[in-house]
Automatic annotation (TrEMBL):
The keyword ATP-binding applies. Contains large globular domains required for ATP hydrolysis at each terminus and a third globular domain forming a flexible hinge near the middle of the molecule. These domains are separated by coiled-coil structures. The keyword ATP-binding applies. Homodimer. One of its GO terms (biological process) is sister chromatid cohesion. The gene is smc. It comes from Bombilactobacillus mellifer. The lineage of its organism: Bacteria, Bacillati, Bacillota, Bacilli, Lactobacillales. It is found in: Cytoplasm. This is Chromosome partition protein Smc.
Length: 1184
């Protein structure tokens, strides 16, 4: 057996479909670190049956699916296929070539295929375990496994011997056997508990069943005599009822005639009373009207008198208010004139006070200095004049300096302005280039944004498709769930029908026995529309369980069967003797005209062909109506001769008794078939919906995959636009840097230009200020000179002026005090006059308003007086008319009252006669109802208690010489015997049989479980013995081979394998002891890293020598060896390549040189592993 090829697609870094083909010998897999070499070994391990994501360097199993790269999207499925040459039939399949494929989807679903046939993971694992290529075999060895050997505990190293020894399959079967043993123990315990419980139930139930059988025997005899007695009593009551019916008809005729006369007389009395009542009502109306009109007339008279008084009062007040208003208006004119005079006087005095104040102020201003002050001012003015002369000279020198500075700054500014113009031209050219690049970048950015918008829209569409797929899947799941629920309900109902649940014990016994001649039970032979099922179940619950037979002999045979097996009672309908019994057509014609009538029950249901006589016998006298009201009306119409049932199940029995109300429906014999038929139709509809939902899910999945492809295309376009945008962005940054440099240079020149401009402006401003200051100083010099002249003149005239000034000032101050006092007095008088004028104006306004109100009130009173006069005239006329009509009505009422006594006397005589006949009719009705009730009770007792019709009981009575006294004696004796038996459990017979059968079955099952447990324990012991034997044999052979190969691999030294517990081969650990050349014997953990690795590799070679594997994948196991040891390792591989096919993943030169074929793994595209063809200089072989 050899591994011919590996095909990988979507597994880890192998995004594209990749195939590698292997020959016998050594095949090398080379490539740089991180290129995905080890992914190949993990792919093979995964297909063989690896279930641990951690062993495949992942956190969950979906991590092995290609996760995407910068250039590629993630995939949704990973697939790996292995092809084997199976000529030696190492794999237990009768084919020369075997192909095994494993596939994993991102949603977690996994598939296994064996030669294109879908299988389970368990099937693949069992296949490789049987071939010695299980989980712990040497088919795949990684560097981590080598390290795990020398790092693990001795007990954990058992797998390196157990794998080659082929005990994995035995250990797996032992684990299954152990699980079965635990399950068997649990079942055995549960069965033992049930058997113990049933043991306590069997004996008591057996005694109860025997007692119940004895009770049924006595009860059957009692029922027989009770049925005969009931039939006899019913016949007697029927004769008595017929006599009472004849009497009732005679009384009914007499009463009808009398009721007709009484009705006519009563109508006359009622008409006379009604006319008298109408006249009385009219008289009361007119009297009430007269009273109301008189009251209204008195009210109007009172209003008229009150209005006259109010009018006189208003005229008096109006005259008084007018005189008062005239007086106030005269006062107002006087006050206004006084106020104007006072205002003129105040204004004149204020003008005189102002003039005096101004004269005093002018006089004080003209004379305000003394001689010493004037002398000081003259000296101060002279000193200021000299200072101004010095400032004038300094400003003249400063002006000459500023003029020179201004000329020099202006020349330098002109030079800078020329440099700035040149720099601005250069900057404008760079700005144009920058604008062009910006436009290109914006265009690329816009296109990228458009693509991004398309991606977002596409992502929304993908999300919508995913949501649509999710909704479709949920809808499909709901339909499937509904289908499963409906299927469970259908199966449950079918089981109920098959087991005849709901039937009496005797009926079930006959149906289960399948006796010859039995046609079936009535409930199964008829078809009842759903709307009539409640009615029929309520009215004929017992008849539905009658059993139809072909012949009377068949019925007798069935009864014998029930008696022999103590299986209960049942009513039988032999089709050859049962006669049809149906309501006469003439009666039906009358019923069809009644509201709510639906028909005869036998016409509303269908029955199996040939059984119409059964149908009409059972249901030909049962009427079906809609409501209880209709049932009462129809039952009265037919004189309670037949049963009437409503759609709600209310029942009126013959004789008039009524049964109705609301109870929980327990009899579903009719509805079971309808429900089963509906469930069958529903199942068919749901099956179609399931198919439709599956098609919808597949369609949605296809649409989602298409949208994913479109989204990937848009992603590629966006990446291209990003590259273009990045290139333009780089160019734009260069241009912006150039622009910034030029901008900085221009800003430096502008700064200098501004500095010179500010300096020029400052010089010009200083020059202007200097000129202005010089002119101002010259003006100040002139003014100071004039001031000195004036001050000297004033000093000479000062004494004469001072005396005149004092006299004038005293005179003006005296005049001002007098004028001020006069002004204050006059202002107080003016304020008092203004307040009097304001009060006068307010009084005038109030009087005018009150006069207007009086005029309006007077006009309203005049209108009211006229309206009252009109109303009084109208009411007087109405009073006269009402008095005339009242007299007329009183006259008519006296005429009516004369007729009343005669009509009342006639009515009383007829009423007494009616009462007599009604009493006689009621007595007869009570007697008839008593007969009917007694008959109904007995009929109902026959039907309810004994499931027997009166016809069948009458036939039994006719066939017997019945004596009532003898029957009563038999009933008393049987009743006494039943009393002595006491209370019984009639279900005990059936319960005892069920418990007994179950008890015997569980005893047998308990014995089978004990046998199975013993067999499992024996099997597990045999497996342990086989495992120990195989382990011992394999360990002995591997230990011997290890001791031989070790000196060859190390160039000397010795080593051995030691069992930690030789007496317990099922749990013993394995110690590795080695002595490399030049060192002492020591355990593996004390060796150097390279020595430990080579020791473990030597052990693996020893195992391969003893138990060769068909192929072996070595994943960088020699990575920690030096070159010399690598050469030994590679040369030793050549010794086994004829028996074992080696696939070596390596990057060591010595190993590569020993391979017959090399594969190179690289990542030309980031994140994606590919197989490339190269020429290696170390060999002349091509690397495929």
């Amino acid at each position: 057996m050899t591994l011919k090829a590996v095909e990988i697609s979507g597994f880890k870094s192998f995004a594209d479909k990749t195939a590698l083909y292997f020959d016998q010998g050594i095949t090398g897999i080379v490539g740089p670190n991180g290129s995905g070499k080890s992914n190949l070994a993990e792919a093979i391990r995964w297909v063989i049956g690896e279930q641990s994501a951690k062993s495949l360097r992942g956190s969950k199993m979906q991590d092995i699916i290609f996760a995407g790269s910068d250039q590629r999207p993630a995939l949704n499925v990973a697939t790996v296929s292995l092809q084997f040459d199976n000529h030696d039939r190492r794999l237990s399949i009768a084919q020369d070539e075997v192909a095994i494929r494993r596939r994993l989807f991102r949603n977690g679903d996994s598939e296994f295929w064996l030669n294109n046939q879908k299988v389970r993971l368990k099937d693949i694992s069992s296949l490789f375990i049987a071939a010695g290529l299980g989980k712990n075999s040497l088919a795949i060895i990684s560097q981590g496994q080598v390290e795990a050997v020398f790092n693990s505990k001795p007990e954990q190293r058992r797998y390196i011997i157990e794998g080659p020894a082929g005990v994995a399959n035995f250990k797996h079967k032992k684990a299954e056997a152990q699980q079965q043993l635990e399950q068997t123990d649990a079942n055995l315990k549960r069965v033992a508990d049930i058997v113990q419980e049933l043991t306590r139930q069997v004996e008591p139930l057996k005694a109860q069943a025997q007692q119940a059988q004895e009770y049924q025997t006595q009860k059957q005899q009692y029922d027989y005599w009770q049925q005969l007695t009931l039939a006899f009593e019913i016949q007697q009551l029927a004769d008595q009822k017929q006599t009472a019916l004849t009497t009732a008809k005679q009384l009914q005729t007499q009463l009808a005639d009398l009721e007709s006369q009484l009705t006519r007389t009563q109508q006359q009395v009622a008409a006379n009373q009604q006319q008298d009542q109408q006249l009385t009502t009219a008289i009361d109306h007119y009297q009430t009207q007269l009273t109301s009109l008189s009251r209204q007339l008195e009210v109007l008279k009172g209003k008229q008198a009150l209005a006259a008084q109010q009018s006189d009062f208003n005229v008096t007040n109006q005259s008084a208010f007018t005189a008062q208003l005239t007086k106030l208006q005269d006062q107002s004119q006087t006050l206004q004139q006084t106020q104007r005079q006072q205002q003129e006087q105040v204004a004149s005095i204020q003008q005189r006070v102002h003039q005096l104040q101004q004269q005093i102020k002018n006089l004080q201003a003209d004379f305000s200095a003394d001689p010493e002050e004037m002398s000081r001012k003259i000296e101060q003015t002279q000193q200021q004049y000299l200072t101004l002369l010095q400032q004038q000279t300094s400003l003249h020198n400063q002006k000459i300096y500023l003029q020179r500075q201004l000329q020099q700054s202006q020349a330098e500014s002109d030079q800078l302005q020329k440099q700035m113009q040149e720099q601005q031209q250069t900057q404008q050219q760079a700005q144009q280039e920058l604008a062009d690049l910006t436009n290109k970048q914006q265009a690329a950015q816009q296109q990228q944004e458009q693509l991004q918008q398309q991606i977002q829209q596409q992502q929304k569409t993908v999300q919508q498709k995913q949501e649509q797929l999710s909704r479709q899947q949920q809808a499909a799941d709901k339909v499937v769930q509904h289908w499963q629920q409906t299927q469970a309900e259908q199966r449950s109902l079918q089981r109920i029908v098959q087991q005849h649940q709901g039937y009496y014990q005797g009926v079930r016994a006959v149906l289960k026995a399948q006796l010859p001649g039995v046609v079936g039970v009535v409930a199964e032979l008829i078809q009842v529309p759903e709307q009539f099922q409640i009615a029929l179940q309520s009215a004929a619950a017992t008849q539905l369980q009658y059993i139809v037979t072909q012949m009377q002999a068949d019925a007798r045979q069935a009864i014998d069967y029930l008696r022999q097996h103590h299986a209960g009672r049942a009513t039988f309908l032999p089709r050859n003797v049962i006669q049809a019994r149906k309501i006469a057509p003439r009666d039906v014609a009358a019923l069809q005209q009644k509201a709510g009538y639906l028909g005869i029950a036998s016409d509303l249901i269908q029955i199996t062909d040939g059984l119409q006589n059964i149908n009409e016998n059972l249901f030909g006298s049962l009427l079906v109506v809609q409501t209880l009201e209709a049932a009462i009306a129809i039952s009265n119409l037919i004189h309670h001769r037949w049963r009437v049932v409503t759609l709600q199940g209310d029942l009126i029995n013959p004789g008039g008794s009524m049964t109705g109300g609301q109870v929980k429906v327990t009899n579903e014999l009719l509805s079971q078939k309808t429900r089963l038929h509906k469930l069958t139709r529903t199942m068919e509809q749901l099956q179609q919906q399931v198919q439709q939902q599956k098609a919808g899910v597949q369609k949605a999945q296809g649409a989602l995959e298409q949208k994913h492809h479109q989204l990937q295309t848009l992603d590629d376009q966006v990446q291209q636009q990003k590259q273009i945008a990045q290139k333009l962005d780089n160019q734009l940054q260069v241009k912006q840097h150039q622009k910034q440099t030029q901008q900085q240079q221009l800003q430096a020149l502008s700064f200098q230009q501004q500095r010179f401009g500010k300096q020029i402006q400052a010089n010009q401003a200083q020059l202007q200020d200097s000129t202005k200051q010089k002119a101002a100083i010259e003006r100040q010099l002139t003014a100071k000179k004039q001031l000195l002249t004036q001050q000297k003149t004033l000093l000479d005239d000062f004494d004469q002026q001072k005396q005149n000034y004092e006299q004038q000032l005293q005179t003006l101050q005296t005049q001002l005090a007098v004028a001020t006092n006069e002004l204050n007095n006059q202002q107080q008088l003016l304020r008092a006059t203004q307040q009097d004028t304001k009060a006068n104006q307010q009084q005038i306004a109030d009087l005018k308003q009150r006069l207007a109100q009086l005029q309006t009130a007077t006009q309203d009173l005049h209108a009211t007086h006229q309206d009252v006069d009109q109303q009084m005239a109208k009411i007087t006329s109405q009073i006269k008319t009402a008095q005339e009509q009242l007299a007329e009505q009183q006259k008519l009422r006296k005429q009516i009252q004369v007729k009343a006594p005669t009509l009342e006397e006639k009515y009383q005589q007829l009423f007494k006669q009616q009462k007599k006949l009604a009493a006689a009719q009621e007595d007869n009705a009570v007697t008839l109802a008593n007969y009917k009730n007694q008959m109904q009770r007995r009929l109902q007792e026959l039907e309810t208690t004994y499931q027997m019709s009166f016809e069948v009981a009458a036939a039994q009575l006719a066939a017997t010489q019945f004596e009532p006294q003898h029957a009563q004696t038999q009933l008393k004796q049987l009743q006494q015997q039943l009393t002595e038996i006491g209370s019984v459990n009639l279900n005990a017979i059936e319960e005892y049989e069920q418990v007994k059968d179950r008890y015997e079955f569980l005893q047998k099952q308990q014995a089978d479980l004990i046998t199975a447990r013993q067999q499992l324990q024996t099997t597990m012991q045999e497996m342990d013995h086989e495992v120990a034997t195989r382990f011992e044999q394999m360990f002995t052979q591997v230990a011997a081979a290890f001791e031989v190969i070790f000196p060859k691999m190390f160039g000397g030294g010795k080593a051995q394998l030691v069992l930690t517990q030789p007496d317990d081969l099922l749990t013993t650990g394995i110690e590795i002891v080695a002595q490399p050349p030049g060192k002492k014997l020591q355990q593996l953990s004390l060796l150097s890293g390279g020595e430990r690795a080579l020791t473990v590799i030597t052990l693996l070679f020893a195992i391969i020598k003893v138990q060769p594997v068909p192929f072996c994948v070595l994943d960088e196991v020699e990575a920690s060896l030096d070159e010399a040891n690598v050469t030994r390792f590679a040369s030793y591989l050549n010794k086994y390549d004829t028996k074992t096919q080696f696939i070596v993943i390596t990057h060591r030169r010595g190993t590569m040189m020993r391979t017959q074929r090399l594969y190179g793994i690289t990542m030309q595209e980031s994140g994606v592993s590919t197989v490339v063809s190269i020429k290696l200089p170390l060999t002349n072989q091509e690397v495929s």
